[in-house]
Amino acid sequence: MAFSARKTRERRAPEPVGRGTPINPSAAIRRWYESQLSVITRTMIAEYRKEIAEALKAPSVEKFFATDAAATNALTAVMTRLQSRWFKIFSAFAERTSAEFIKRVEEGATKQTLMSLSTAGVDQPRAAYSSNIANTLQAGREFNDTLIKGIQADVHEKVHNAVMLSLTSPNPEEQGQSGIENALKEIGGFSKDRIRLISEDQTSKMYSSLSDERMRENGIEEFEWAHSSAGKHPRESHQKMDGHIFKLNDPRLWQVGGEFDLKKGDLGPPGWAIRCRCRKIPII
Length: 284
Known about the structure:
Blueprint: H1 27-56, H2 59-63, H3 69-120, H4 131-168, H5 176-217, E1 222-226, H6 236-241, E2 245-247, E3 279-283
Antiparallel strand pairs: 1-2, 1-3
């Protein structure tokens, strides 16, 4: 029996969508950055502790700690000297470390993004040094330089306030050398938490920005939102966004309220909001 063609053609199935792998910020880079900031901050606090303790041993300070102007003058001189010294140290450190951090992030984010694009089906994804990339890197260096210097400024201000309070406070826990020591321990804990937040947040934000640029230059304009399901209090708005497809410049990502009921602290692409662990999956 001869073959006869069907009068109606079957509808072809849609072409499969290319889907990359999640772009994950490097934990190794984040740990390196945190370690660099932690070491220099601990060293600074240790020197403040040592210098203040030595100043408090001076006879005029020890005898008239809370009443004599000599105590205030001696401690003020110590704080002024420490501020000048550590401002210079942190300024040089910030310039070197922010540049190295951005360099490592650019290499890591580019590698992760190109690998993801290759998985999605992009043939030989490229990584050009465009003006957009250059601007992103420069902005990242400048912002992290400011953040690092801010650690020194905040620590000094807190120690200075604790020292002055130790001379006048009616609270026994804030008085004298024991009051200063209590404050230094608290400041150490505060600095540790802040450094961890800076290293996590900046690694995540830079990966987010750089992966956007690498996707654009390879002609990929869309991504799937992958919720992390991590953290004790996951953002409800980000849970709603899980699995949805967005444009890189999608206005919904920056709209308070809207389709996903975003709060101000939820805005931005995956990994942009503070402590957001969601991930971006390139989509063709």
